[in-house]
Write a structure and sequence with these properties.
Length: about 475
């Protein structure tokens, strides 16, 4: 009798590194040829989509679904890059062509209290006589999801409920977890009835699986640089399944021909779609990371207006370049401002603002590399502002360089609260840390900061105002 086993291949956090997805497709095909379709299960654990990529942006995620279909994936989880960068209706449309199960046990809609029709809490897939129960959960960014009409529930409670339902019906209970390694460990310790956790979200690579109690934890890193491989064995006398897990590097695999063709087709379609002209500039709008420049000023002003705030503040590293004279297209804005970062409104003390302004004059901040939290640039950059004028003396010691800061023509008061239009990244305490001290925070979704720039570009007065300097060198000598 044939040995009873199943090979599970799991990918995660590809973030639209589509060429790596194409390499994974080659590996999946090789494994399918080796073991047969009846012994192979391919799954993805979220953040396959990332709107930094032209093909994803231009197709509203359809290219990612097409690649998953072509590679023969049978189940996927939703990550925050899917759930938080698309409206619910856009997600429903993106997955309308899916040939796989879309699983999200903790993602009921706010208005119904139920999962939408295209989403299921769990599924049982039988391979080679082994019934594998799959549960998927995603990270609970409650403040953001609620603005998009989702009411995310506690993921561990959702897993616990689904595990009870699956135990007895499935030979293996496996969780596709887009929660991160800390919660994966907690899940293994606290939730009964789970055999296997395949993780994502925190980009952790477990070349050797963790075993906590009777639960095996696996994870395959980020960007499709590895694919996880779990061999599930089930012997008649075994009370629980046995797992042999590893992570396979993908760099040496060729891109699958069908996947490469899909990417190329969506690239052409995306370029056509993003060629729509937003505005026409009579003169260039430069953008510099290390200091004030017109396009950064325009973004700060747009954030102030969007939030109906007194002050607008944004780090200049959000912009990867400026705009030339002539037509400005959606594709140009996407290329220069690819981050899926949302506007927000908050209350900040004058002291918190002053500290951040002082730090914006220091190279250790302006040149600081930043990764994650939606940021798709390279360095933090300085601060672009609106509603303020700042005089500074670069010859003074750090944190003593501000000579004057005016808000609406009046001196900035350290003890006073100000309404500030800025970006959600600051609320995660990233970069300029005192800008994370805001209160009464309001997030604006599904707008991205490039949408704010697009609106400003259609206003000739806003374009002209972006060239007005807000930072000026002064001296007390």
């Amino acid at each position: 009798m044939d040995r009873q086993y199943v090979v599970i291949l799991h990918s995660n956090d590809i973030h639209s590194r589509l060429e790596n997805a194409a390499k994974i497709a080659t590996y999946i095909e090789l494994e399918r040829e080796r073991h047969g379709s009846g012994r192979l299960l391919a799954i993805d654990i979220g953040d396959h989509m990332d709107r930094i990529r032209l093909e994803t942006e231009g197709s509203d995620g359809k290219v990612n679904v097409a690649l998953l279909n072509a590679a023969g994936y049978e189940a996927i989880a939703l990550g925050n890059n899917e759930g938080l960068t698309y409206a619910r209706e856009e997600l429903a449309e993106a997955y309308s062509d899916a040939k796989f199960a879309v699983i999200g046990a903790n993602m009921p809609e706010t208005y119904t209290g139920k999962l939408p029709p295209w989403l299921v809490p769990s599924v049982i897939i039988e391979k080679n006589g082994i019934k594998i129960g799959l549960i998927a959960v995603t990270a609970r960014f409650t403040d953001f999801y609620s603005l998009l009409g989702w009411d995310l529930t506690d993921p561990l409670d959702a897993v616990r409920e689904q595990a009870k339902l699956l135990r007895g019906k499935a030979d293996v209970v496996a969780v596709m977890s887009h929660l991160g390694i800390t919660l994966d460990k907690q899940m293994a310790e606290e939730v009964d009835g789970i055999d296997l956790i395949m993780g994502a979200h925190t980009h952790h690579l477990l070349e050797e699986p963790l075993v906590i109690g009777g639960t095996t934890i696996c994870a395959a890193g980020k960007f499709g640089e590895h694919v996880g491989r779990v061999v599930v064995e089930l012997e008649p006398d075994d009370k629980r399944p046995r797992f042999h897990a590893a992570c396979v590097p993908t760099a040496a695999f060729a891109e699958h021909a069908e996947a490469a063709a899909i990417i190329g087709g969506y690239r052409e379609a995306g370029m056509r779609r993003l060629s729509r002209v937003i505005a026409r500039l009579e003169a260039p709008l430069p953008a510099l990371a290390e200091r004030e420049s017109p396009l950064g000023n325009m973004l700060a002003a747009g954030l102030r207006r969007h939030a109906d705030a007194e002050i607008g503040i944004v780090n200049t590293g959000q912009l990867l370049g400026g705009l030339p004279e002539g037509d400005v297209t959606e594709g140009q804005l996407h290329a220069l401002c690819p981050s899926p970062i949302n506007p927000c409104r908050m209350k900040l003390t004058g002291k918190a603002i002053r500290t951040a302004l002082e730090e914006a004059l220091l190279p250790e901040f302006t040149s600081k590399p930043i990764k994650g939290y939606g940021f798709r640039g390279e360095v933090l950059g300085s601060l672009a502002v609106d509603g303020m004028t700042i005089g500074y003396d670069p010859d003074k010691p750090p944190y003593e360089r501000l000579v004057s800061v005016l808000v609406g023509g009046e001196p900035l008061i350290d003890e006073r609260d100000y309404i500030v239009g800025c970006i959600d990244m600051f609320t995660f305490h990233i970069g300029y840390l005192t800008l994370g001290e805001g209160r009464d925070i309001v997030y604006y979704l599904p707008e991205f900061i490039r949408d704010v720039i697009a609106a400003e570009l259609t206003d000739d007065r806003a374009v002209a105002a972006s060239r007005v300097e807000h930072w000026r060198i002064v001296s007390n000598k």
